[in-house]
Amino acid sequence: MAAKSKKKAGNPLTALEESVKLVYDGKYEKARAALQKLIDDGQVEQQAIATARTYLRICQNQLSSKGEPEGDTAEALYDWAVVLHNSGEREQALKYFEKALKKAKDDKDHIYYGMAAAEAASKNADKAVEYLAKAAGARPERTFQATNDPDFREISSNQGFKDLIKEHSQLKESA
Description:
mainly alpha
C-alpha cells in the first residue's frame, strides 16, 4: 500500500498550531474544519495526528449540545476532562481524568499529564509533581512538555518540580 502523499501547502505543524489556537479561542467550528483537513490530507506525522484528533474531539464535544462527554471510553472521558480544564473547571476536570484513568488499559501517561496540568494550574504543586512523575515514568518527554506548558507556570519555582525536570534532563543527556 502506498503512503499518503503530503500536500505542499505550508508547514503542517504551523497549521496544527493555528488550529489549536482556534480551539483555545473558542472558534470550534473553524478549528474542527482545519483539524479534520489536516488529518484527512495526511499532512502531519502520526504523533501530531493523535494531537489533532484529540483537539478535534474537543471541538466536537464543545459543539455538542449535551455539555457532557461523547461516550464512556477512556479517551472520551479524557477529552471531556481537557475541555473542562481549558474552561477553568479544574475540579470537574480532575474527576473526569480520574474516570478516564480507571477505564484506560494502557497508555495512561497523557491522562496523568492532564491531571498534573490541572493540579499545577490550581497551584497544587505536590499533586502536580506526583502526577507528572507518573506521566514521565512512561514518557520522559512529558517533563520537557511541562516546562513549555503555561499550566505549569504556577509551580515552576517549586523545588519538587525543578528536581523532576532536572532528573529527566539528566536521563536524556546520558542516553
